[in-house]
Amino acid sequence: MNNMSDQTPLEISVQHLSALRESKDPMTILDVREPQELAICKIDGSLDIPMQSVPANLDKLDKDTLLVIVCHSGMRSMQVTQWLRHNGFHHATNLMGGIDSWAREIDTNMAKY
């Protein structure tokens, strides 16, 4: 995954994201949950744009950098990932299981809902 010319997978695991964060490789974590969800928990450093607002905020996203899309369980983020890929963001990938899996498997002190 370090070489961006590699095909970006459609989904990655929370363990994969954790390793990517430790490697300090350039990436953006795009959290598409609603503000009331973000108030409960979020991954530090994420870019927070609610799902319905993503099309109006494409200027905030880099097509050349890995873009990891996050929601609560991975359903909304998969829709956004597929939409972004259809619109030229070929390095967009979904976080399998969303923030819920992140809180259960990686950051176990994170609030869950």
Average pLDDT confidence is 94
How would you write the strand order of the largest sheet? Answer: 1-5-4-2-3
Q: Count up the helices.
A: 4
Morphology: globular
Overall CATH architecture: 3-Layer(aba) Sandwich
Structural class: alpha/beta
What's the name of the CATH homologous superfamily? Rhodanese-like domain
Kindly describe this structure.
A 5-stranded parallel beta sheet has the order 1-5-4-2-3. It has 4 helices and 5 strands; from the N terminus they run E-H-E-H-E-E-H-E-H. The longest helix is centred in the C-terminal third of the chain and has 12 residues, at 75-86. With 113 residues, it is an alpha/beta fold. The chain is globular. Residues 1-5 have low confidence and may be disordered. The protein has one domain (14-105): Oxidized Rhodanese, domain 1, CATH 3.40.250.10. It has helices spanning 14-23, 35-38, 75-86, 98-105; strands spanning 11-12, 27-31, 47-48, 66-70, 92-95.
Q: Main attributes?
A:
disordered N terminus, 5 strands, five-stranded parallel sheet, globular, 113 residues, alpha/beta, Oxidized Rhodanese, domain 1
